[in-house]
UniProtKB/TrEMBL annotation:
Keyword Isomerase assigned: yes
InterPro entries referenced in this protein's UniProt entry, alphabetically: AIP/AIPL1/TTC9, PPIase_FKBP_dom, TPR_rpt
Protein keywords: Isomerase, Repeat, Rotamase, TPR repeat
Annotated stretches, region: Disordered: 1-44
Species the sequence originates in: Arabidopsis suecica
Name the record gives this protein: peptidylprolyl isomerase
Comp. bias intervals (Basic and acidic residues): 1-15
Catalyzed chemical reaction(s): [protein]-peptidylproline (omega=180) = [protein]-peptidylproline (omega=0)
EC number: 5.2.1.8
Molecular function via GO: peptidyl-prolyl cis-trans isomerase activity
């Protein structure tokens, strides 16, 4: 991260610094649970004799051209049995697809993706001829013969490259450089409050830093990659907090903390998300850990004071509530005592009258 950006991110609670830190592997988990294909009411657009598309969410900008490197998430089902056989959202790993160079079994999916804009989500119907064909696939993924498919697809974004260069063909420096450019684009969008678009850029940056790639790195290259990847995760977390998607923000902070357990920004943001969810004790623990590693950070102290004030206010509220309950019991007790005295007095009067009456009756006899 360059010096100017680092300077912007020194104070955790400033809007500019929140804008320039954070990320997450999955920025827009579909609203449905994903066990079955989504029900879509939009009109089907015929893209090919064997491919059609129904838009779930509109995208923005232009569509990718041939040889563009597209980054996407999808879920896939067999159309007849509705058996789900693949889910990249669940795996938290975007897929890279170079249009015009896709595998034969993804030809129908590629036609659908070529018609989509960044951020667009759609239900793509693919005939078996442009999918896994007459034989199907009996390894992974497991697809039966002659199976028509349904894809719920979201295009995160794409890189326009004339030669259609895939990540696997890039050098380490090229991949890290491409990821860093995406991160900077995301920062600019975040400053403009275009949060969804910013998250798309951060997620594309992370796509260059996949687990298979990171596993091969060591020394300075690993440090360079983490210096891009982890700030992207933190920046998406910041976006998600602003969007009130606190559980997702916590997940993205956790990703950073698995790599850097002493990262004060990750601890701070996770604490903010937990506090919003009412997890006060856990939030306080995160803020105190963050303060340990960044003792001069005013924003952390401010959050700790805010938590203490909230807890004090809650205590006072509970105290007043219980006071009212006990006061009601005391007043009720006083009334009960007064009533008891009246009953005793009445019983004594009746008893006295009875004794006098009995004595008078005996004398008369």
């Amino acid at each position: 991260m360059d010096e100017s950006l680092e300077h912007q991110t020194q104070t955790h609670d400033q809007e500019s610094e929140i804008v320039t830190e954070g990320s997450a592997v999955v920025h827009s988990e579909p609203s449905q649970e994903g066990n079955v294909p989504p029900k879509v009411d939009s009109e089907a657009e015929v893209l090919d004799e064997k491919v059609s598309k129904q838009i779930i969410k509109e995208g923005h900008g232009s569509k990718p051209s041939k040889y563009s490197t597209c980054f996407l998430h999808y879920r896939a089902w067999t159309k007849n049995s509705q058996h789900k056989f693949e889910d990249t959202w669940h795996e938290q790993q975007p897929i890279e697809l170079v249009l015009g160079k896709e595998k034969k079994e993804l030809a129908g999916l590629a036609i659908g993706v070529a018609s989509m804009k960044s951020g667009e989500r759609a239900l793509v119907h693919v005939g078996w001829e442009l999918a896994y064909g007459k034989e199907g696939n009996f390894s992974f993924p497991n697809v039966p013969p002659m199976a028509d498919l349904l894809y719920e697809v979201e295009v995160i974004g794409f890189d326009e490259t004339k030669e259609g260069k895939a990540r696997s063909d890039m050098t380490v420096e090229e991949r890290i450089g491409a990821a860093d450019r995406r991160k900077m684009d995301g920062n600019s969008l975040f400053k403009e409050e275009k949060l969804e678009e910013a998250m798309q850029q951060y997620e594309m940056a992370i796509a260059y830093m996949g687990d298979d790639f990171m596993f091969q790195l060591y020394g300075k290259y690993q440090d360079m990659a983490l210096a891009v990847k982890n700030p992207c995760h933190l920046n998406i977390a910041a976006c998600l907090i602003k969007l009130k998607r606190y559980d997702e923000a916590i997940g993205h902070c956790n990703i950073v903390l698995t790599e850097e357990e002493k990262n004060p920004k990750a601890l701070f943001r996770r604490g903010k998300a937990k506090a919003e969810l009412g997890q006060m004790d856990s939030a306080r623990d995160d803020f105190r850990k963050a303060q340990k590693y960044a003792p001069d950070d005013k924003a952390i102290r401010r959050e700790l004071r805010s938590l203490a004030e909230q807890e004090k206010a809650l205590y006072q509220k509970q105290k007043e509530m219980y006071k009212g309950i006990f006061k009601g019991k005391e007043e009720g007790g006083a009334k009960a005592k007064s009533l008891n005295w009246l009953i005793v007095l009445w019983q004594w009067f009746v008893s006295l009258f009875s004794r006098i009456f009995r004595r008078h009756r005996v004398k008369a006899d």
